[in-house]
């Protein structure tokens, strides 16, 4: 299952990362080298073995959300990149007519 | 640090503050002076990414007004360094990354709040591999931390700054975080004690997530007792972390009075391969001989799936990281870089904010989770992870109380010596297993090789940290100065 340049371009898009061509080529080599060491796992018999879920803890308990959010020690505008009227601002989708900041 | 020199213990600091011989301001001043003397700043050992003298003095004055309490694990007046991925209200929390440069958290990690409640003074934020991804602290956006023992060597990672802060004698206790050995490996490289508690023993509320099924806050101590006192304070159930276990926390310092006579200590053959540095092997054998002389029964055991741990870890951890780090997108916090529309902003922010190793792991994690590869990589790795955990269950279920292994295959390597990512990943080979199985483990100094510290690792069953500490206290006493020469 060798990683191809198309694979790298695809996963970079999924991960919202922009890779210039030379970096994408290097990534193909790096991932193939790393994943080559993972091939040993394919030879392990795991028939009937459960996947590790919540290992070492007591399952994966769900925290009640009845108490509401944890209060913040400082206001949103102290750390949010862009804020208006208490709402976080994001740029418009590039598929829209204008690409200006909302 | 000068050979033979030791920092003041947490117990001594607390005692002096309680009896009025010194106050918290004096302990903080001493730590600041030590940081200055050893050149802990960016132009020296590069241990701290933020250390605000004026703020520390102000907090020390506040702490000094606290009444001396009677908690046995109290850290009254003790300065404690904090890894840069643990949220604190007054220092930035940047995870060693450009992505979070200048970011000050709007809430405080439970472990930091507990330290303050015990009278400790959070003493600056320590350097680390970016988002805790690395084994040498070379992946920090702030540049590498230097090993205080030999400055051409790495302190290990990812919690290299915290390990170095203790090793340099600045603080007796520091907090780190573990995902695959990020406390134990730097502890071994820096000649200090490093503890990874059981998964669920310590709250992770306020620890910036890397791989949520593996992450755990850990403790460094100059001595076993320092580490025991630190863990005693931060451990315990926290309603804000659903993975934290509601199990009573023993006073680990009492473990120092327990005997190891009759304790069965397993020596897993997979951790002593032919390729192991013979000088590291000799130190481990000497440590085991000390434990046997104290009445412990040393027994050869096997954990047959150990060699699969690094491949499993480097599928599971990047997969979880690719999900956890999706939140750094320039919208809610951290850095935003302009781009073409929303998607362009995402890409510009993330590409400009993350360094090469974090980018590599996000891509690797995205790949193993993507359609067509999920079963072959991620699902398979999670099944093999069960086999690795079952190895520990079988050994501990057969009457073995603890395991003893080398913490790392070699002493600290030179800065820049390892450029191949997988070769770097292999430096975690003896530590990742405990994270995958969720069991507690710790490293303590057991001697030196060419002046560089060697760490010995104890591994215990889930929530049996006190048993681990009992052996560690006993071994530390038996080794004496041999642990540091």
Entry summary:
The complex is a heterodimer of chains A (102) and B (485). Chain A has 102 residues and is mainly alpha-helical.
CATH class of one domain in chain B: Alpha Beta
**CATH class of one domain in chain A, anyone?**
Mainly Alpha
CATH superfamily of one domain in chain B: Amidase signature (AS) domain
Q: What fold name goes in the CATH topology slot of one domain in chain A?
A: Histone, subunit A
Structural write-up:
The complex is a heterodimer of chains A (102) and B (485). With 102 residues, chain A is mainly alpha-helical. Chain A has a domain at 5-41: Histone, subunit A. Chain A has helices spanning 5-14, 21-38, and strands at 83-84, 87-88. A two-stranded antiparallel ribbon of chain A has the order 1-2. In chain A, β1 (83-84) and β2 (87-88) form a beta hairpin. Chain B has 485 residues and is α/β, with parallel strands linked by helices. In chain B, 37% of the residues lie in helices and 13% in strands. Chain B has helices at 10-18, 24-37, 53-64, 110-117, 160-167, 184-190, 224-234, 278-293, 309-324, 341-353, 356-369, 374-397, 421-425, 432-437, 465-479; strands spanning 48-50, 79-83, 121-126, 173-178, 193-196, 216-221, 264-268, 297-301, 402-406, 441-449, 452-459. In chain B, strands 1-3-2-4-6-5-10-11-9-7-8 form an 11-stranded mixed sheet, sandwiched between helices. In chain B, α2 runs antiparallel to α3 (53-64), α5 runs parallel beside α6 (184-190) and α9 (309-324) packs across α11 (356-369). Chains A and B meet through α1 and α2 of A and α9, α10, α11, α12 and α13 of B.
């Amino acid at each position: 299952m060798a990683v191809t340049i198309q694979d790298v371009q695809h996963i970079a898009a999924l991960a919202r990362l922009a890779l210039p061509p030379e970096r994408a080529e290097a990534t193909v080599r790096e991932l193939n080298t790393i994943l080559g060491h993972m091939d040993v796992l394919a030879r392990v018999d795991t028939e009937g073995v459960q996947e590790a879920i919540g290992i070492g803890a007591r399952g994966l308990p769900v925290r009640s959300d009845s108490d509401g959010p944890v209060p913040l020690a400082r206001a949103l505008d102290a750390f949010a990149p862009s804020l208006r009227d208490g709402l976080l601002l994001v740029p418009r989708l590039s598929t829209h007519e204008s690409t200006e900041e909302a | 640090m000068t050979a033979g020199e030791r920092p003041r213990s947490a117990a001594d600091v607390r005692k002096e503050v309680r009896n009025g011989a010194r106050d918290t301001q004096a302990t903080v001043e001493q730590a600041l002076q030590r940081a200055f003397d050893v050149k802990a700043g960016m132009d020296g050992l590069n241990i701290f990414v933020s250390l605000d003298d004026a703020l520390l003095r102000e907090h020390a004055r506040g702490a000094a007004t606290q009444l001396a309490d009677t908690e046995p694990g109290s850290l009254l007046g003790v300065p404690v360094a904090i890894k840069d991925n643990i949220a604190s209200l007054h220092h930035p929390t940047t995870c060693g990354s450009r992505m979070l440069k200048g970011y000050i958290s709007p809430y405080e990690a439970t472990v930091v709040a507990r330290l303050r409640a015990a009278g400790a003074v959070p003493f600056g934020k320590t350097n680390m591999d970016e988002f805790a991804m690395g084994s040498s602290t070379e992946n920090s956006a702030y540049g590498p931390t230097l090993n205080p023992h030999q400055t051409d060597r790495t302190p290990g990672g990812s919690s290299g700054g915290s390990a170095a802060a203790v090793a340099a004698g600045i603080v007796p206790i520091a907090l780190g975080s573990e995902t695959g050995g990020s406390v134990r490996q730097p502890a071994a490289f820096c000649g200090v004690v490093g503890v990874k508690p059981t998964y669920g023993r310590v709250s992770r509320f306020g620890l910036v997530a890397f791989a949520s099924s593996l992450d755990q806050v850990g403790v460094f101590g100059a001595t076993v007792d320092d580490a025991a006192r630190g863990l005693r304070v931060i451990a315990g159930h926290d309603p804000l972390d659903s993975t934290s276990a509601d199990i009573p926390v023993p006073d680990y310092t009492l473990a120092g009075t327990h005997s190891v006579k009759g304790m069965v200590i397993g020596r897993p053959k997979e951790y002593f391969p032919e390729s192991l540095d013979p000088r590291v092997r000799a130190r481990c054998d000497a440590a085991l001989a000390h434990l046997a002389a104290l009445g412990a029964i040393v027994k050869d055991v096997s954990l047959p799936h150990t060699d699969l741990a690094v491949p499993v870890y480097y599928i599971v951890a990047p997969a979880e990281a690719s999900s956890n780090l999706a939140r750094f997108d320039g919208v809610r916090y951290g850095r935003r870089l302009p781009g073409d529309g929303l998607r362009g902003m995402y890409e510009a922010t993330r590409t400009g904010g993350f360094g090469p190793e974090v980018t590599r792991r996000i891509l690797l994690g995205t790949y193993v989770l993507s359609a067509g590869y999920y079963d072959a990589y991620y699902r398979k790795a999670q099944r093999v992870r069960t086999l690795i955990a079952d190895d520990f269950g079988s050994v501990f279920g057969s009457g073995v109380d603890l395991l003893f292994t080398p913490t790392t295959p070699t002493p600290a390597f030179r800065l820049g010596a390892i450029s191949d990512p997988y070769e770097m990943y292999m430096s975690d080979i003896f530590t990742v297993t405990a994270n995958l199985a969720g069991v507690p483990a710790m490293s303590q100094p057991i001697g030196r090789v060419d002046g560089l510290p060697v760490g010995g690792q104890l591994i215990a069953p889930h929530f049996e940290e006190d048993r681990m500490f009992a052996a560690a206290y006993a071994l530390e006493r038996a080794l004496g100065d041999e642990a540091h020469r």
